[in-house]
User: What shape does this take?
Amino acid sequence: MFGTEDWTGRPVCRQGECTEPAVIAGQWCPGHALGRLRRDLERPEPKTTFKRGATARVCAAGHGCQYPAVGSSGLCGRHERQMERWGRTTPIAQRRPRGAALLRDAQGRKQCSVCLTWQELGAYAASPVQADGLQPRCKGCVRFATYHVTPERYAALVEAQGGVCGLCGQRDSSGRDLTVDHDHRCCPVPRSCGRCVRGLLCNRCNVGLGRFQDSPEMLRAAAAYLTFWSAQPPRRVPAEPPKPRGRRWPKFRLTDEEYARTVAAQGGSCAVCRREPGRRSLSVDHDHRCCATTPACGTCVRGLLCTSCNTGLSHFNEDAELIIRTAEYVEAHMIVCT
Ligand SMILES: [Zn+2]
Ligand SMILES: [Zn+2]
Ligand SMILES: [Zn+2]
Ligand SMILES: [Zn+2]
Ligand SMILES: [Zn+2]
Ligand SMILES: [Zn+2]
Ligand SMILES: [Zn+2]
Ligand SMILES: [Zn+2]
Assistant: This one.
């Protein structure tokens, strides 16, 4: 019946035996158009489930449609139905079908769930909880959501720093992208307004900075601690001290008696941050350039530190100069940000 015209030459509704003029989209009478619309609305979302690593092309309909194409038409399922029904396509709301995270296009790329662009797998951070082991959002979208740093600004920051950490001057040891560092006094962890971004850091420096709470005073105290101990003679380890020697003897050649004396000498607090350690006891710090692992020889034992300062030092490779640079970095950005 479609295509027939009534006696005035107007097209009539293509629905069955209906003879009403087709005033809606040139194909339907108002009543039948409404009926079809209702049926469309009641129809559930297409439940497309994709196999892991299935390849996909993007819908060819235009309108910014990013749904994967199905069949030979080159259109997504919904645009294919539009085309069959209306002979043309219109924009549709972009919701990704179930399982779309597992799709790969012909170049092996994956589609970001936010910006809907198809990007190399390296553009997605690993995520063991996801079916394909990758986050659904691309790193650029995650970075923007977290730090208000656009991909363009991030690229400019990487370029300005020569692709290396702003503190230690190294690439990230685990091969990860450099982390956006921001002033936590402006924006508490873990988000930034974007104005308090200070630079890009490797993961080790970023964590190390956090251990010293972004505090120039604590960082300078840590550097002073390292400098002090580098000028000290090696500690004399008693060869056969009286028993009991306690649990620190095997790892550090430090008896409970000497440990207690050192705690008292430090006033019960950490040798760097001067805070009392709370429920955990102070850790024995030693020079890792002498003994990379424990058990340590004992001659390289330095002071007693809280867990935070102890791990902070190791994240900065116990490098006093690097820690001073870090303090200066924090101070330099304070003017901008406080
Ligand atoms: Zn009709
Ligand atoms: Zn489409
Ligand atoms: Zn994205
Ligand atoms: Zn670094
Ligand atoms: Zn901020
Ligand atoms: Zn700020
Ligand atoms: Zn401490
Ligand atoms: Zn040693």
User: Anything to note?
Assistant: The mean pLDDT is 86. The domain at 141-211 is CATH 3.40.1800.10 (His-Me finger endonuclease fold). The chain has four domains: 1-43, 49-85+92-136, 141-211, 216-324. Residues 263 and 269 are 7 Å apart (CA to CA).
